[in-house]
Amino acid sequence: MDILLTIIHLIDFLLWLFVAGSVFYVSLFAIISLFPTKSSSKNINKESRRTRFLVLFPAYKEDRIIINSLNKFVEQDYPRDCYDVAVIADHMQDDTIAVLRDLPIKVLVPHFDKSSKAKALQYAIANIGSDYDYVVILDADNVVENNFLTQLNNKLSEKKYTAIQCHRCAKNKDNEIAVLDGVSEEINNSIFRKAHNAIGLSSALIGSGMCIKYNWFADNVNLLTTAGEDRELEALLLRQGKYIKYEEFIYVYDEKVSNQDNFQRQRLRWMTAQLQSLSSMLPYIPKAIRKHNVDYIDKTIQQALIPRSILIALTLLLSVITLIINPVASIKWWCLFFSISIAILIATPSKLRTKSIVKSIKFLPRLIWKMCCNILRIDTSNKDFIHTTHDK
């Protein structure tokens, strides 16, 4: 009996250590996100060389939203001869493609047996000229302000970063799930982007709102093989010692998921990509340690973190169970639960701490359950693209 109790206590402690690692990481960077950051330059340097941009819109079955996004984008105040816009129209209707061809953009129509965003990007680079300085990647639902390229040009005039991640934020708040998804995005921005840059580490990439040096992108895009192309790009950049800059004040407005099925599909894609990324990054850790590549080591640790929503559910569940079985042993679990809760509150921008968020919290248990159900569906060998549809 004593041996059994010892084994139970040991398992409890080891599980606590594993969960505590994720809680500590999130809590640490949530606090760091409160550090002041240098704002972007808002003055146009008229003497600086204009950056030539290639703006890519990979669009898979996005007939409903792509036209509106492009109509808004071509209103840029940036010189028209300094950027090209290209849409990779994958599995889109002929009527939509006809409308696209009437716009002042390049239209590429690939025919993939199995589609993915990585394939769309590879197709674009293979079929468009190379007379560009940077490539900008946007999703079909993304909308930007008309000075978006001007802001990027100003930032690149200050320093020629290899990669910039812009501030992606919600453009829709049409229901509680979209509100929660938008808040989750901003928490990620605080922890994995703003806080990391604040102490000299690279920002995480998101998948859209990315600006990457063209020559580097063209040389590396064909190395992408999974549906988690943003994580692959991150790993490649950091393995090569390239810094990723986060631009908090250059906004990209993104349509957030607004129903539970889309939320579950999206998170399944993210969770699968996270584990695939972890398995592919681990073999390079010894070399990263020898070369003191802190960015790469940090990014690998990120891939091993337990998702925040599961952290909340897991720490609360284990706190309650241990409270019933052994109240003293439950203290350490309650500490983790309150720590992750406070960290999430800290990382949530103050402007989002509103009544609408409080009303939306009632949907959180359902979404957490969807996340937990995804654990059983993860297949790290599956590299198929999981498309998130838009509801309107």
Helix content: 40-55%
For the largest sheet, list the strands in their spatial order. Answer: 3-2-1-4-7-6-8-5
The count of DSSP E runs of length 2 or more, i.e. the number of strands, is 8
Q: How far do the termini sit from each other?
A: 60 Å
* Overall form: globular
Element order: H for helix, E for strand: HEHEHEHEEHEHEHHEHHHHHHH
Which radius of gyration do the C-alpha atoms yield? 22 Å
Low-confidence stretches: 40-45
Oligomer state equals: single chain
Class from helix and strand fractions:
alpha/beta
- How would you characterize the largest beta sheet? 8 strands, mixed
Q: Mean pLDDT across all residues, rounded?
A: 89
β-strand percent reads 5-15%
Figure out the total of helices.
15
Descriptive notes:
- With 392 residues, the chain is α/β, with parallel strands linked by helices.
- The chain is built from 15 helices and 8 strands.
- The protein has helices spanning 2-32, 66-73, 94-101, 117-127, 148-158, 176-198, 214-220, 229-239, 260-281, 285-290, 294-303, 308-325, 327-347, 355-360, 364-375, and strands spanning 53-60, 83-90, 106-108, 134-137, 143-144, 163-170, 210-213, 244-254.
- An 8-stranded mixed sheet has the order 3-2-1-4-7-6-8-5, with helices on both faces.
- Strand 1, helix 2 and strand 2 (83-90) form a beta-alpha-beta unit.
- Helix 9 (260-281) crosses helix 15 (364-375).
